[in-house]
Amino acid sequence: MKNKLYLPNHLAGIKRTFIRLRFHDIDHLMKARKELQPIVKRNIEQQIDGIIELREFDIPYHSRETLHFLNIIRYDVRVEQPELIILAFDFECTKMRLKFPTHASDQIKLRQKNQ
C-alpha cells in the first residue's frame, strides 16, 4: 500500500495496492510488458479491472537489477589526522546604535589568532 502522491489530496492518506513483478531475464520482462500494456490501456478507458498503469518499465532491466542486488562494502580504514595549524582573523568594529557600520565613521580592529 502506497500513498497516491500525484493526487491533489495526497495528504488525506488514501492508499493504493501495487503488484510487484520480478523476472529472471529481459525476455520474460518484455513478454509480460507486451501482454500487460493492452490490458492497462483498456482498463484506463473502461475501468474494468484494477490495473491502470505500469510503473518502472522505463528503467532498463540491468539497471533495476543492479539496484536490487547492490551490496555496500564498508572498509574500516582509519587515517591519522594531521596536526592542524589554525590561522584566524577576527574583525571587530564600532558603530552607531541601530545602524550598520560604515568605513567613514567607524573604527575597524583586526585581531590575528595563531594556534
TrEMBL record:
Q: Which GO terms describe its biological process?
A: base-excision repair, gap-filling; DNA replication proofreading; leading strand elongation; mitotic cell cycle; nucleotide-excision repair, DNA gap filling
Q: What does the UniProt entry say about where the protein is found?
A: Nucleus
A cellular-component GO term for this protein: epsilon DNA polymerase complex
Task: Kindly provide the name given to this protein in its UniProt entry.
Answer: DNA polymerase epsilon catalytic subunit
Spell out the reaction equation it catalyses.
DNA(n) + a 2'-deoxyribonucleoside 5'-triphosphate = DNA(n+1) + diphosphate
Q: Which residues form a coiled coil?
A: none
Cofactor(s) listed: [4Fe-4S] cluster
- Protease in keyword set: no
Superkingdom to which the source organism belongs: Eukaryota
Which EC number(s) does the record attach to this protein? 2.7.7.7
Function, please?
A: DNA polymerase II participates in chromosomal DNA replication.
**Which keywords does this Swiss-Prot/TrEMBL entry list?**
4Fe-4S, DNA replication, DNA-binding, DNA-directed DNA polymerase, Iron, Iron-sulfur, Metal-binding, Nucleotidyltransferase, Nucleus, Transferase, Zinc, Zinc-finger
Family designation: Belongs to the DNA polymerase type-B family.
Give the enzyme class. transferase
Q: Give the chief site where it resides.
A: nucleus
- What Gene Ontology molecular-function terms does this entry list? 4 iron, 4 sulfur cluster binding; DNA binding; DNA-directed DNA polymerase activity; single-stranded DNA 3'-5' DNA exonuclease activity; zinc ion binding
